[in-house]
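Notes from hallway chat w/ T.B., transcribed later so I don't forget. T.B. wanted the structure written out for a chain they're using in a teaching module, and asked if we could keep both sequence and C-alpha cells in one place. Agreed to drop them here.
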Amino acid sequence: MRQRSVSDLMTRGVVDVGPDTGFKEIVKTLADHDITAVPVVDDDGHPLGVVSEADLMRFEARRPDPSGRVPEVLQRYAPPTDDTGPAAGRSPRAGNLMTSPALVAYPEWSVVEAARLMDEGHVKRLPVVDRADHLVGMLSRADLLRAFLRQDSAIHEEITTDILTDTFHMAPSDVDVNVVDGDVTLRGTVQRRSTVPVLVRLCRSVDGVVSVLSELTARTDDDTVPDDAAQARRREA
C-alpha cells in the first residue's frame, strides 16, 4: 500500500510575496495567477505568513465609509483604521496584512496529518516547507479533497490486491469487496476474529475511501481463546 502524501497533492512553483509588498500589488498578484491567497516569505524563502482575500477584505472593511451608508451597528464591529499613526498615508504591506505565524506542512506528511492541522488551525491552506523551512509548495483544502476523486475500481483493486492478497494472504473468494462512491462493504469469512478490526482499519486508510462497513464473520473467535502459555500453565496446575 502507498498512500498519497502532501508531496503528491501540493501545488509546486508557488507564487509568493515579500513582507514589504503593497496592497495593490498583492491584489494584482492574486488576480494575475487566479489564486485566493499568497504566502509571505523572507529573503531566505522562509514562510512568515499568508495573505488571503479574506485578509484584504478585512482591511478594506475597516476603512471609513465615505457614503455614510454603512449601518452604525456594523461600524462598531468593523471600526475604521487609525490614519494618524507613523504609517499614515502609506499603503498597507503584506507584513501587516498577513495571518501569521504560518502553519506549515511537510512533503512527507499524509493527507490525514495535513487535514488535521488545517482543521485545528482553522485555515484553508498550508505552505509546504522542506526540512530547512524553505517554501516548496502550497496545499489547499481542494488539493486534499482530490484524493476522494479516485475511481471506485482503483480503490477495489488496492484493497483486494495490496491488503487482502499481499498483506493477509487471503484467497479472492474469502472476502467480497464492494465499493460504491468510496463507501466500502466487506462480506465474507476470515480465519480469526482479531483480523477484522485490523482489516477494517487498513481499508479506511486507503486513499479515496469514505467509509467501511464490515459484515465479516470469523471461523475462530481468538479474542476469547487463551494463548498457548496460559493453556500450558493450566495443564501444569
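Follow-up for T.B.: The chain has two domains: 6-147, 150-220. Might be a good example for the class.
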